[in-house]
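Lecture 7 notes: from sequence to structure.

We start with a single chain of 229 residues. Read the sequence below before looking at the structure.
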Amino acid sequence: MRRFAFLLALTVGAAAAAPLVVQKNGDLYLDSRNQSVRLTTYGRNFNPVVSPDGRWVAYLSFPAWVQGGGYLATNVWVMNLQSRTARRLADQPAGASNAGLFVCRDLLSWSTDGRTVAWLEWRLSGPDTLPAEETVLVTRSVSGAERREVRVHLAPGLTGWSADDIFTQLLGVRYQGRLEGNTLSLTVTRDRTGRTPPLQVKVDVETGLLREVHSGSVAPVHPGGSGRS
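Now the structure, written as tokens:
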């Protein structure tokens, strides 16, 4: 998906009160009716997700060495929208490279109290090497002080899924995520026509157990679902 070719906007909470953060040509802007304030200048940032309290924006970023297309290395950042200071929550492992081992991250989601960011990540050995060996759920506080991770595994009896290919089964064109208590809830839209019912899953933060729930009418609002360029 060519993320840099589109203008992507996200609002959270009440439309009149929440900040509006948009992506333009690989950078983030804080938009209002009267002005647009540039938040980043890196040129490789995407998928902004504003916290429920409107204080923070989490976003994904390609490392400087990333080239080409396919499933690419991605890092996680958060920015305080008042001070405009940013902090990296997830980097690449030592020795990571475009053609070697790297970590692809996606499906950024906020906790309901705006203090923790959750995401899923996969270790890949190249941009076209799928399936990923394992799917990991990571949660980290905005301060960076607290971090937890757990390997995701399928609930017993879950049909239509492959335990060694959870990555591709969560791909989509849009998604909605929420971390509430020990549960990460994801709603993924897998086509642009709306003909396919959205995929709805819940993942236990402590055990990593993934279970599918019935499709509903919730409209996903975040771009993404793959870390693919």
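The chain has one domain: 3-223. Keep this in mind for problem set 3.
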